[in-house]
Amino acid sequence: MVTIERPVTATRAPAGPRPRRRRPWPTIAVFLAPALLLFGLLVLAPIAVAGYASFFTWNGFGVPTEFVGAENFRRLLADEVFAGDLRRTLLLVGLSIGVQLPFSLALAMLLHQPLRGRRAYRLVFFAPYVLSEVVTAVLFTMIFSPNQGLANHVTRLIGLGDLGATWLADTRTVMFSLFLVISWKYFGFHTLLYLAARQGIPQELHDAAATDGAGPWRAFRHITLPLLGPTIRISVFLSVLGTIQLFDMVWVLTGGGPIRSSETLAVTMFQEGFKRFQVGYASAISMAIFLISLVFGLLYQRFVLRRDLEGAITTMGDRR
Amino acid sequence: MSHADGARAARHGALHLVAVLVGATVLVPIVFGVLGGFKDNGQLFTNPFGLPDPWVPGNYTDILGSGEFWRQTGNSLGIALATTVLVVGIGAMASYIFARYAFPGRELLFTVFAIGLMFPFAVAILPLFVLLRELGLLGNPLGVILPQVAFGLPVTIVILRGFFRGIPGEVEESAVLDGCGPVRFFWRILLPMSRPALGTVSVLAVVGSWNNYLLPLIVFNDSRWWTLPLGVQQFQSQYSADTARILAYVTLAILPALLCYALAERQLVAGLTSGIGKG
After folding, report:
1. What distance separates the 2 farthest-apart alpha carbons in chain A?
2. Per the database record, which ranges form the ABC transmembrane type-1 domain (chain B) (predicted)?
3. Chain A interface, mutation test: which of B28, B46, B110, B126, most A Cβ atoms within 10 Å?
């Protein structure tokens, strides 16, 4: 790996007038200090404290003193709500990977066609991504509202009656309504990622395939899809991490209800920590979120992203 | 018209149909919000799809005249700007060192920041709340800005370091030969040369701050500092039965974001996809 360092030639040149050489340490210290200070104090320390607090019974005031060992974690593993959180996270991950992302991919392939006005379509598809989750959630609360909401009007219009009377209020439908809103907001983002990657594939490859007699499906299967691989893997990664950490949308849309049937890990953590002041137990949930994210992230990087990540995230603008 | 042309036209028609349908599912909720704000609740019930008849501008004018909406918009804007300036400034300084200075422990430190990309905000929120309370930063915009900066550093540093490394070493050599110190090189040469990357990380910071909810929620008890997401949610619980009024508030909260998006779409899209989109 080539690392560009400070005056390379100047220090290596054995003869000739050498420029005044500065000691790098003060510069390094001054330039790094603010980032280290903020990151250490407001990111690393709180996470470490959460880890520490997860071994205590603590109401969040003063210093945690009532050490209970792994009791919080034992309680967590036996907690039906926590088990439900994990199931719901898996359900959302499955739906995202199985429904939302393939849909985004299909749409990106469509938008890649020479289609009149595709810039306008792209503009529209991506728009929900810039809205905050909270504002989106409030808008959809209104849309799912039993009387004035749009959703019920639509189902009545297409002859499904009041099927939708209970979009967010029924334990059987709430997760799918939630998934609908999440997809509405995020599918455009993934579509755009795929589209950008698709446009980066040289046309010659598809021309050559066509000359060799490959139909559109085979060209997609053997050329487009493999070359989109890195982007698809990144998009799955972002989607899964986002789902593990889901909070805003759920909190505003359902508050985790009805009867905790749409609660996520972060919502349970918030309930325990900020509503019931069980900060020790809530910290144990934090740690669970942390560990799940980290283990997933590291395993995914290790086994799936390995080579992609080098070129995709860490070396943007690098002409290596 | 030849046979092939006909087939192509049919295919195009089908493509457009799909695109229009998807576009409609995206737009209908937003249009429902915009138009719903101009209806009253009776109209929303009897006439959910059509144009308002008559148009009732009262919901909008009430909100625009109340001052609360404007204060929330101002708070959101101020907090987003302060966050962006700080995270880009501090992040750029650190990236400069990570990109162009060699010292023992550099890769380890950088890795810590890079792994920070995977730290969920929710994990730190409880101790962060306790810490901010001890520091007396609850109810203070700094209590939102500083943690946002800290959590924004990983993505800023990862992107900027990559970009800074791509700037040829000769540029720096000649600057040093001309007697340029590290601060002047950073400020006068490196930053101006890095405008595209700085734009990218700025966009990420603005969007992140503008949309943040959890942190303002726990830091601001006093409605004086509420940001738009908090305001919208509070408004919803206050007028829970008045759908039309809430739709008007949502619409007004959406507009700045959509306007910004329409104006800076290219930059935004490039920003959000540049780091991850090129496979």
Report:
1. 89
2. 73-264
3. B126
Determine the residue of chain A that is closest to B34 in CA distance: A139
Q: Compute the nearest-CA separation of A172 from chain B (Å).
A: 23
Which candidate from B29, B159, B254 shows the least CB-CB separation from A140?
A: B29
| Helical packing angle, A133-143 and B3-36, nearest 10° | 90
Of A116, A128, A132, the CB nearest to B26: A128
Q: What residues does A66 pair with on adjacent strands?
A: A57
CA distances to A194, B9, B15, B242, B265 from A116, in Å: 19, 12, 10, 41, 19
| Mean pLDDT split into 10-residue runs, chain B, 279 residues | 72 86 92 91 83 90 92 96 98 95 91 89 91 93 97 94 88 86 90 89 90 94 93 91 91 88 79 50
Q: Name every chain A residue with its beta carbon within 8 A of the beta carbon of B173.
A: 7-10
The confidence score (pLDDT) of residue A308 equals 61
Contact status, residue B154 vs residue B114, Cβ threshold 8 Å: yes
How far is B4 from B269, CA to CA, in rounded Å? 36
* Tokens coding A94: 């499955």
Q: What pLDDT was estimated at residue A169?
A: 85
pLDDT at B179: 85
Q: Which residues pair with A57 in a beta bridge?
A: A66
Helix, coil or strand: residue A67: strand
Q: Which residues contact B101 (CB under 8 A, 6 or more apart)?
A: A5, A6, A24, A27, A28
Question: What are A236's two structure tokens?
Answer: 């799955």
Q: Is the pLDDT of residue A319 over 50?
A: no
Closest of A104, A93, A99, A129 to residue A239, by C-alpha: A93
Nearest to A5 by CA among B234, B96, B10, B26: B96
DSSP B277: S
Backbone angles phi, psi at B273, to 5 degrees: -105, -15
Question: Do B150 and A60 make contact, defined as CB atoms within 8 angstroms?
Answer: no
Pick B229's closest partner by Cβ from A121, A134, A283. Answer: A134
pLDDT (0 to 100) of residue A307? 64
Q: E strands within B150-201?
A: none
Residue B2: strand, helix, or coil: coil
What is the Cα–Cα distance from A283 to A47, expressed in whole angstroms?
9
